[in-house]
């Protein structure tokens, strides 16, 4: 019975990753190899928010559709994590299980802001070092046109990234790796390497930086059992990068 249960969990994890960030990691590796085969990484560029149409309202439509459909794997994860109520447990809510709720908004916001400061400044240093060493591409956080909806869409995109990555890579995977009998250090390592892997299209510097960020976020999650501060921190990092570039035209952050 236990073997069957673990096999089911493994299939479940592969399905979730195949529909979301595992797929992104595969594409990212291929994109990295493509860039390396053409020129040194220092001469490459990575654009994070691309325009998808030269016509304003079609571009807006495509951007919103991308954000909406990117959240579908999160709904799948929440469905998988929703279980029956058991005596002595907080209930079957996946939101409560992951700490992805508004149970303590003030504390979550403070912790998220603290993580933002802890990760944000070193990220800029790692980006600068990676560029100097030639192991990081030039990162363009936004290539959207200048429209009335550009900043709101970039904010929504940042929130989307925070939700997708932290709910799946931290909350969901650490739970499932635990059910598969993984030791916590191995689970954190796998989660963090995955986080770095889907940033490889930006170069080796972002891979290292995001893997380190993954370790820190996973350790915080294991102590708090709440993914909400991680979502807030991640969203703030991307908002500063995306909106800052859109308004001031300067590449910042790792995306």
Can you offer a commentary on this structure?
The protein is mainly α and 255 residues long. The chain has one domain. The chain contains ten helices and two strands. A two-stranded parallel sheet has the order 1-2. Helix 1 packs across helix 2. The chain is globular, with a radius of gyration of 19 Å. The C terminus is likely disordered.
Summarize this structure briefly.
Helix 1 (2-19) runs antiparallel to helix 7 (150-179), helix 7 (150-179) packs across helix 9 (204-224) and helix 7 packs antiparallel against helix 10 (228-248). The protein is mainly alpha-helical. The chain has helices at residues 2-19, 21-38, 56-70, 72-81, 94-98, 105-133, 150-179, 184-197, 204-224, 228-248, and strands at 45-47, 138-140.
How many helices? Answer: 10
Mean pLDDT over the full residue set: 92
The protein's oligomeric status is: single chain
Number of E-type strands:
2
Q: Total domains, how many?
A: 1
Which shape, going by the Cα principal axes? Answer: globular
Percent in helix? over 70%
Largest sheet report: 2 strands, parallel
The computed structural class is mainly alpha
The percentage of residues in β strands lies in under 5%
């Amino acid at each position: 019975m236990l073997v069957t249960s673990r096999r089911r969990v493994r299939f479940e994890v592969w399905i979730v990753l195949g529909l979301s960030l595992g797929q992104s990691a595969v594409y990212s590796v291929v994109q990295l190899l493509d860039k390396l085969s053409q020129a040194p990484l220092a001469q490459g560029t990575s654009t994070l928010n691309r325009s998808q149409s030269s016509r304003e309202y079609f571009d807006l439509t495509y951007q919103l559709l991308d954000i909406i459909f990117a959240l579908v794997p999160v709904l799948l994860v929440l469905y998988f994590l929703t279980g029956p109520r058991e005596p002595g447990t907080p209930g079957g809510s996946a939101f409560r299980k992951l700490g992805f709720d508004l149970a303590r908004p003030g504390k979550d916001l403070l912790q998220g802001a603290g993580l933002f400061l802890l990760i944000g400044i070193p990220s800029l240093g790692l980006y600068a070092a990676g560029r100097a060493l030639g192991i990081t591409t030039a990162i363009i956080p936004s290539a959207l046109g200048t429209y009335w909806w550009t900043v709101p869409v970039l904010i929504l995109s940042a929130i989307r990234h925070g939700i997708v990555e932290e709910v799946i890579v931290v909350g969901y995977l650490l739970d499932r790796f635990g059910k598969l009998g993984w030791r916590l250090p191995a689970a954190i390592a796998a989660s963090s390497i995955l986080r770095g892997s889907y940033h490889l299209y930006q170069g080796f510097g972002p891979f290292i930086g995001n893997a380190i960020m993954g370790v820190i976020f996973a350790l915080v999650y294991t102590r708090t059992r709440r993914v909400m501060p991680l979502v807030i921190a991640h969203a703030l990092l991307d908002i500063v990068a995306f909106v800052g570039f859109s308004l001031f035209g300067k590449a910042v952050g790792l995306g």
